[in-house]
Design goal:
With about 500 residues, the protein is of the alpha/beta class. The protein has 18 helices and 20 strands. It has a domain of about 300 residues: TIM Barrel. The strands form 5 sheets. Strands 10, 11, 13, 14, 15, 16 and 17 form a 7-stranded mixed β-sheet that branches.
C-alpha cells in the first residue's frame, strides 16, 4: 500500500513582511558538543565496560535463542549468563550499525533524522498518572492519551508523537497498545513509537505500521522507534528481549536504554554508572546486529541519582548530567545515535522546582548532544505523572533550545551592514529595512512567558505561568483539527484492531 502524502499546512496570514519559515521537523545542530572527559578518560570507561562484559557477564534470562546468537558469535554461555570476549560486542556493532537513519512519518514532511548532528524532541513516556489544574493528580485514561497526542501534534517544538505518553489504565493491559498505536496514527501524522510490553504487542505494532506504510516499505525503512530497557544490574528479561527480536527482525529501531538508579542498581560513582550502562547496552545492541545486520538502533542511557536519606530517585542532578555527557561521547566513538536527557523533575506540581530541574536537565542534554530526547515535555513526579500544563510549558521552552541548537548565523544578512548605512548614530533601527525583513524570526518569543509591564499584567488578571499554561492547552484542544488520513488505511486499521481484540480475553494485570 503506498504511503499517504500530503502538502504541509499553510501558516500565517498574508502581510507585507516576508513569510515566516516553517519550523524544521527536527533540530539540525550547528553548535559544538561539550565533553567532560578526554579521549584517554573515555578509553578507561570503555575498558571498564569490556571488563564487566568479560568477567561479570550479562544475564539473558529465559531466552535461549538470544544466548544461542551470542554463543555462535563467540561468547561463553553459562546457564543464563553470557560472557563476552573483550571487544566482541564493539566489533559486531561497528561492522554493520548505522550512525544515522531516517524514521519515516505518515506525513513525509515530518520524518526525522536520528543520529549525526540531529536532535529530535519527544514527549514524556510511561507515566500511569496525569495532572491538570482542574482535577489535580489522577490515573490516566485513553482520552488523556489522545489529548496528549493532539497537543504534541500541534506543537512545532515537539518533533515526534512519542509512545506511551501516559498509561491508559482504563483499558485492559493486554489490549491498550492497540488504542495507543491507533491514536498516534489517527490523531497525528508525526513519527511514533511501538509497544514493547510483550512480543505479540510488538508484532501488532509492526502489523499496524505495515497497514499505514506497506509491507515492503516497512521491511526496508524505519517507521517505528522502540524503547528496550535493561533490567539493571546486568540483566535483560524475556519481555524486553521478545520485543527487541520482533523489531530487529522487522528492521525497526531498537533504542537500548539501561534504566539505572545510581546507588541501588549500580555503584554510586558516575564513572561506574557510565561503564555499567555502556556494557549492558553494548551486549543488546550486538544482539540486534546479530539478528539483522544493519537494523537501526540507538544507544540510550537513563540514569537518576537517589536520595541517600530516603532512597527516592532524584532528577535534574549534576551526577545524572555527568553520566549522560559520558554516554553521548561513548555513542559518538562507537558510531551509533544516542538517546538520553529530557525535562526531568521530581516535583509533583508544575512549579519552580519543576522549572529549574527541567531546565538543568535540558541544558545538560543540549550540551551533551543527545540525538533522541525522550521525556522532553510533560514529565513530573519522577516519571510517575504526565502534566498537561507541564507539557505545554516544556514545549514552549523547547523552542528556545531549537534556536540555540541551530547555531549563530554569520551570513551577510545577519551582519546587517546595510542597516548601519541606513541608520545614523543616535537613530533607531525599529523601522530599518533590515529590521522589517527579519523581525518575524529574529528572536524566539515564548508564547507563555509574560514580559508586559505590571499594570498590563494586572489588567489581564495577574495570571501566573500555570494559569496561562492551563488556558493554552485547553484552547489548543478546542482548536484541534486532525490531519488527513487515507479512508482505506483508517478502515483497515480499525478492522485489524477489532479483529485482534476479539481474539484476546481481557487481562487487567
Amino acid at each position: 500500500m503506498p504511503r499517504e502524502r500530503r502538502e504541509n499546512r499553510r501558516r500565517g496570514a498574508k502581510t507585507d513582511a516576508p513569510p515566516v519559515p516553517v519550523t524544521p521537523p527536527y533540530i539540525k545542530r550547528r553548535i559544538p558538543y561539550f565533553e567532560m572527559l578526554n579521549d584517554d578518560e573515555l578509553s578507561i570507561i570503555e575498558r571498564n565496560a569490556d571488563t564487566i562484559l568479560e568477567e561479570i557477564g550479562i544475564v539473558y534470562g529465559e531466552d535461549p535463542e538470544a544466548r544461542d546468537y551470542f554463543l555462535k558469535a563467540g561468547a561463553t554461555v553459562e546457564g543464563e549468563l553470557v560472557k563476552f570476549p573483550r571487544g566482541m560486542c564493539r566489533e559486531i556493532i561497528q561492522k554493520t550499525a548505522k550512525a544515522q537513519f531516517t524514521q519515516h512519518a505518515r506525513n513525509p514532511a515530518k520524518s526525522v533524522e536520528i543520529g549525526g548532528n540531529n536532535m529530535v524532541l519527544v514527549p514524556a513516556y510511561g507515566p500511569p498518572f496525569v495532572y491538570n489544574q482542574d482535577e489535580g493528580r489522577r490515573y490516566a485514561n485513553i482520552d488523556d492519551f489522545r489529548n496528549f497526542v493532539k497537543l504534541a501534534y500541534m506543537s512545532d517544538n515537539l518533533h515526534h508523537s512519542g509512545g506511551t505518553v501516559c498509561e491508559p489504565v482504563d483499558l485492559p493491559v493486554n489490549k491498550r497498545h492497540f488504542d495507543m498505536v491507533y491514536s498516534h496514527i489517527k490523531y497525528s501524522d508525526k513519527a511514533f513509537m511501538g509497544s514493547v510490553t510483550a512480543a505479540e504487542r510488538a508484532e501488532d505494532s509492526v502489523s499496524m505500521a505495515k497497514i499505514v506504510f506497506g509491507d515492503e516499505f516497512v521491511d526496508q525503512n524505519c517507521v517505528l522507534v522502540n524503547l528496550i530497557n535493561a533490567n539493571s544490574p546486568m540483566t535483560f528479561d524475556a519481555t524486553m528481549l521478545g520485543a527487541l527480536k520482533v523489531y530487529a527482525r522487522n528492521n525497526q529501531a531498537c533504542m537500548v536504554s539501561p534504566f539505572i538508579i545510581a546507588g541501588a542498581m549500580s555503584p554510586v560513582s558516575a564513572a561506574g554508572v557510565a561503564a555499567q550502562s555502556f556494557a549492558e547496552a553494548l551486549s543488546a545492541m550486538a544482539l540486534v546486529q546479530l539478528i539483522r545486520p544493519g537494523a537501526p538502533m540507538i544507544y540510550g542511557n537513563f540514569v537518576s541519582s537517589m536520595s541517600m536519606q530516603t532512597g527516592a530517585p532524584t532528577f535534574g542532578s549534576p551526577e545524572a548530567a555527568q553520566v549522560m555527557n559520558i554516554g553521548a561521547a561513548l555513542a559518538r566513538r562507537l558510531g551509533v545515535p544516542f538517546r538520553s536527557g529530557g525535562g526531568f523533575t521530581s516535583s509533583k506540581l508544575p512549579d519552580a522546582q519543576a522549572a529549574y530541574e527541567s531546565a538543568d536537565s535540558m541544558h545538560s542534554t543540549m550540551l551533551a548532544g543527545a540525538n533522541f530526547v525522550l521525556h522532553a515535555a510533560g514529565w513530573m513526579e519522577g516519571g510517575l505523572c504526565t502534566g498537561f500544563e507541564k507539557l505545554v510549558m516544556d514545549a514552549d521552552r523547547l523552542g528556545g533550545y531549537q534556536k540555540l541548537g541551530a547555531g549563530l548565523d554569520c551570513s551577510p544578512e545577519a551582519l546587517a551592514r546595510d542597516a548601519y548605512g541606513e541608520v545614523e548614530p543616535a537613530g533607531h533601527f525599529l523601522g530599518s529595512a533590515h529590521t522589517m525583513r527579519n523581525y518575524q524570526t529574529a528572536f524566539y518569543e515564548p508564547a507563555l512567558s509574560d514580559s508586559e509591564n505590571v499594570e498590563s499584567w494586572e489588567d489581564g488578571g495577574a495570571k501566573d505561568m500555570r494559569q496561562r499554561a492551563y488556558e493554552r492547552w485547553t484552547s489548543r484542544l478546542r482548536a484541534y483539527k486532525p490531519p488527513p488520513i487515507d479512508a482505506g488505511v483508517k478502515e483497515e486499521l480499525q478492522a485489524y484492531v477489532e479483529r485482534r481484540k476479539s481474539e484476546i480475553p481481557d487481562a487487567w494485570y
